[in-house]
């Protein structure tokens, strides 16, 4: 099986290392736009910040929306203390236990500054308190300042965004990628690579494809709503991460997909029950093309599909995933083989989504 080339891996690195928490995605969307312009017939934006790149096939309809959000979970500065420490609020969902001792980058008008997330040291805590999990409200960011004036001199102010500092790296003889922001820039990456191949290989398709890098998913699926309005899709595929259930302590029913066993197909989550005919069609296409596919559920989470599938009178939507370990932390891990197979599956679906097929998904 062909694996990702150097150009693809360079794009992956640039996307993951870029700075872009919810509401502050412009650096990432600029990378997406400049990379995709040569492979697109048109590039369209909405006014919230999402970017859509268009590939015109043999027919204007159906319009196929492929969506992957590019915002990462991060933080926003909420105050500067008299001693020069920064308090913060989360942008997206964080579990307090993964934060302490981690390095972060704060973006200010004067440039980026570095810091670390800290709390009162355990050495001076009473034994009872030492056993408790430190809550986020009791943490702060230390940028090395000793007073409010010193901190403010760096340019930092309330409302400045913060992301994990986490360099991208390949492990396991290049089979596994490690880094931040896989949720969900790996989804955007899969869509970008699929559409690049459509163009480079001259693959014909009976529809118009809109690849979307959406914003503000982690704070309430906001970009999905506005981009649906711009595109007006007839059918949609959201490409997302999945919670890889192959780490110690997870039972199969809690997270069924495993890293390295192929992309996932979400059969149910908190935000959407997928169109059943479309779901079965994807299973059949994967079988015909011999692409490994894992069936998944995410009871506790949702995706951009939650908004897209209720656009106007409804839009048949499905979620294809790349199983990823340790999402919503400083360091995630995923399989490049799963990523490649997700790209292949998206292309195979695009080739088959003609007007008759898409109409069949909603016929009663």
Task: Describe the protein's architecture and organization.
With 364 residues, the chain is of the alpha+beta class. Strands 1, 2, 3, 10, 11, 12, 13, 14, 15, 16 and 17 form an 11-stranded mixed beta sheet that branches. It has 2 domains: 6-72 and 180-360, 3-Layer(aba) Sandwich (Aminopeptidase), CATH 3.40.630; 74-164, Peptidase M42, domain 2 (Elongation Factor Tu (Ef-tu), domain 3). It has 10 helices and 17 strands. 28% of the residues lie in helices and 27% in strands. The chain starts with 5 loop residues before the first helix and ends with a helix.
How would the blueprint of this fold be written?
Blueprint: H1 6-17, H2 26-36, E1 42-45, E2 51-56, E3 63-69, E4 74-80, E5 86-91, E6 103-108, E7 111-118, H3 127-130, E8 140-142, H4 148-153, E9 161-164, E10 169-171, E11 176-179, H5 182-200, E12 208-214, H6 222-231, E13 235-243, E14 264-269, H7 276-288, E15 294-298, H8 305-308, E16 317-325, E17 332-335, H9 336-352, H10 355-360
Parallel strand pairs: 3-12, 3-13, 13-16, 14-15
Antiparallel strand pairs: 1-2, 2-12, 4-5, 4-9, 6-7, 6-9, 7-8, 10-11, 11-17, 14-16, 16-17
Helix pairs in contact: 1-5, 5-9
């Amino acid at each position: 099986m062909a694996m990702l080339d150097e150009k693809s891996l360079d794009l992956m690195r640039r996307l993951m290392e870029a700075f872009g928490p919810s509401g502050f995605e412009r650096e990432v969307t600029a990378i997406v736009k400049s990379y995709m312009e040569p492979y697109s017939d048109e590039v369209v934006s909405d006014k919230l910040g999402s970017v859509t790149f268009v590939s015109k096939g043999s027919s204007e309809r159906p319009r196929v929306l492929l969506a992957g959000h590019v915002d990462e979970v991060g933080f926003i500065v909420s105050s500067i203390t008299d001693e020069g420490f920064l308090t913060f609020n989360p942008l997206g969902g964080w579990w307090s236990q993964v934060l302490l001792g981690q390095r972060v980058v704060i973006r200010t008008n004067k440039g980026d500054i570095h810091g670390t997330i800290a709390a009162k040291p355990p050495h001076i805590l009473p034994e009872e308190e030492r056993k408790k999990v430190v809550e986020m409200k009791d943490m702060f960011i230390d940028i090395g300042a000793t007073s409010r004036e010193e901190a403010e001199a760096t340019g930092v102010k309330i409302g400045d965004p913060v992301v994990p500092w986490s360099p991208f790296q390949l492990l396991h003889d290049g089979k596994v990628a490690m880094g931040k922001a896989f949720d969900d820039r790996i989804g955007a990456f899969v869509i970008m690579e699929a559409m690049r191949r459509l163009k480079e290989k001259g693959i014909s398709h009976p529809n118009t494809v809109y690849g979307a890098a959406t914003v503000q998913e982690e704070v309430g699926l906001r970009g999905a709503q506005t981009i649906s309005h711009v595109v007006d899709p007839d059918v949609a595929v959201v490409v997302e991460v999945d919670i890889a259930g192959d780490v110690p302590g997870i039972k199969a029913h809690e997270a069924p997909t495993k890293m390295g066993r192929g992309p996932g197909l979400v059969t149910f989550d908190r935000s959407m029950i997928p169109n059943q005919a479309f779901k079965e069609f994807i299973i059949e296409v994967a079988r015909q093309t011999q692409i490994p596919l894992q069936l998944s559920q995410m009871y506790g989470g949702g995706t951009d599909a939650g908004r897209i599938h209720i656009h106007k009178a409804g839009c048949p939507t499905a979620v294809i995933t790349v199983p990823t370990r340790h999402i919503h932390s400083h360091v995630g891990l995923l399989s490049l083989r799963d990523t490649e197979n997700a790209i292949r599956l998206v292309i195979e679906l695009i080739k088959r989504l003609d007007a008759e097929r898409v109409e069949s998904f909603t016929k009663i």
